[in-house]
Amino acid sequence: MSTFLSTVKAAASQPQNSRPRGQRAKSSAAIVAQPTLGVLTAPPAAPGLLAGKDVEEHAMWLQIGLHESWEQEKRTLSQRWQGPELLQAYDRCGEVTSEYAKTFFLGTQLMTPEQAKAIWAIYVWCRRTDELVDGPNASRITPAALDRWENRLEALFEGRPYDALDAALTDTISRFPVHIQPFRDMIGGMRMDLVKSRYETYDELYDYCYRVAGTVALMSVPVMGVDKSYKGPLETVYRSALALGTANQLTNILRDVGEDASQRNRIYVPLDELAAFKIREEEVLNGTLFAASTGRIDDRWRAFMQFQIARARQIFTDAEEGVNQLDAEARWPVWTALVLYRQILDAIEANDYNNFTRRAYVPKWRKLVSLPAALLRARM
């Protein structure tokens, strides 16, 4: 969000306000993230028993298929929100995006008005979804509540939005080839947050990263569009977008290890990789890998973090391949996301890998300096 919205949801806001599953400052816009779930019919069953990267592959090919066939299969959805009411709904989505994702909102100003409004609508849906498990009512959210939220999703894709903000997304999916599966998968990520606080392997973590961040890439690419001069396969563009979502989420996780462990009893980094570096789960939870008396980080943790950062950087590099195949108006916010988030990894290194008592962030002056560089990359 981000960024694809995984980025939007953190990099674009002030660094102290972001984390992997986002505990954000509340404001007048917070009510947007606390929807009334309503009562609808049961959601459809998940496709098979997909797990890990297979979940991402399934959704990606569904999305590519819709993108490629859009001219023949455009949706015609009628809804009761029309005219001024619908414009007001989009305006409200823009206000929320501007409040919570200032830098990204600025980037949307380079898009066409139709693209920008659609991205705002997607952002607001993602934010409302995220707030179900991380907002002020999170302690009362149950799997049944997420079932009802998924019911609402199915309804809005059928032209039956529950409220005005849903109506903005219903209108968006009638104008752009956005498939429902990434939205379903994001709700699946929220389900994981209700029951899962440890990840045994990188494949398990990858599944989570896709569901909470890669999904946003699949939602956003059809709106951002592909450069008309690009004649290659859409797979290249979508895989790059997915890589950016994964890299952003991994960066969130590495930045917030100490906070997640001490405040939420969560360890996102893979447990088998911790074991490979002879690090015990308890050492992460207790923060004893940083010695306050000496101000030094444990050598095992330093080596572990170097391994994690190297992988994240490689995924950022993979993401670069397809960014400039996006429509020209959409490239700058994506390059901004990539450049700024990669700098968080630099900040972790500058803190000597101490992500227990120090928070890595990109200073505002560096963000401002990076924006022109990102714009230059977008115009290459």
From TrEMBL:
Molecular function (Gene Ontology), one example: 15-cis-phytoene synthase activity
Keyword terms, alphabetized: Carotenoid biosynthesis, Transferase
Keyword Cell inner membrane: no
GO cellular component entries: plastid
Swiss-Prot/TrEMBL catalytic activity: 2 (2E,6E,10E)-geranylgeranyl diphosphate = 15-cis-phytoene + 2 diphosphate
The enzyme's E.C. designation: 2.5.1.32
GO terms classed as biological process: carotenoid biosynthetic process
Protein's recorded name: 15-cis-phytoene synthase
Pfam families: SQS_PSY (PF00494)
